[in-house]
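So, could you explain this one?
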Amino acid sequence: MTFARQDAFPSTYSVTQSRPVLIRGATLLTGTDKKLDDADLLLSGGKIARIGPDLKAPEDVLEIDGSGKWVTPGIIDVHSHLGDYPAPAIESSQDGNEMTSPNTAEVWAEHSVWTQDPQFPLALAGGVTTLQILPGSANLFGGRSVTLKNVPARRVQDMKFPGAPYGLKMACGENPKRVYGGKGVAPSTRMGNVAGYREAWIAASNYREKWRDYKKNGGDRPERDLQLETLTGVLDGEILVHNHCYRGEEMAVMMDIAGEFGFRVSTFHHAVEAYKVADLLAKNNVCAAVWADWWGFKHEAFDMTQANLAILDRAGACAMIHSDSAVGIQHLNQETAKAMAAGRRAGFDIQPQHAVAWMTLNPARALGIADQTGSLEAGKMADVVVWSGNPFSVYTRAEKVFIDGELMYDRDDPDRQPRTDFELGILDAEGERL
């Protein structure tokens, strides 16, 4: 039995590149610590076909003059709530936090995604080609996440990244103990949080053993349990843990729990104090998704350094920028630039060809899709952004965004600036229909 249940709501995503694309003479940041000047990039069949100087143009090619332009892999946001918290932000559309039990591992974020959220195309205009939609952080176990391609779609399955592992959203610290302690039920303390995690993993371990025994020896078929299926998917390595966690010592505790039950945390999100345990994260192969300078809004977010990402990177940990914001997701290149500048102020020599991985390849690693996207390498998905200049300049804008080789956004072509059905017919400020 496959507890991740990839077959229950299968991806129907499909984008076919209409014609080959050749970007000539651009500055390429590959995401693999390389900066290539005056280089050509050929996209063909939805893949990155070739990189190099003076590439031969195939027939019927769309040729783009890259002079003065910079090219990067598509940006990947590992922490988003688009679709689950869409615009307009009204009560009837807020579907990201199932705050009815400390353990709601049975819910799936994709079942709340409103594909007509107008925030998706705004993120696309910022160069975001892939994003993970997570449940909120009220619960110890918030439910399953889903990884999406940022394309217009009628249904969420048309956006689902084919074969991407599901994630399990977990949360430690203030949120669960505040939400449920305020209701007079457990957990109301951090020790209550930890007891809740361990009880759930014990139940999942027992559930897995029942299914293993049934598959080996037969007998009565165990009853399915949606909550335990998700947790068992984690124990089997099919579902990746994405853990909202701010404080360093709590990250250490969560890694100990993972060790007790034989799974690995993929990524700590927000991770304001990750710099305190950077060596432990590197040792345990755990990523950290952080902000550049968002801190101090609650007690556990107070002990911040803006060099957080740079310190993690220097320690050998897999570190990345993330948004957790419908506005921030539109400017992740600038957030990366801020983190890079903070690292330089702290004394680290950080170059653009290295920092670009903080918004491309490292998030792909955290999502388990780095073999398919996140860098400009032959054979990978042609998820590519053409920038007007250095992407780490505040004056730079994404000009063209390709997803699987298809031009999904073009700042110079209104026909390549997608709008959702929700926006059609809405009056603009001058009273003209958009």
Observations:
- The first strand starts at residue 21 and ends at 29.
- Residues 69 and 225 are 52 Å apart (CA to CA).
- The mean pLDDT is 96.
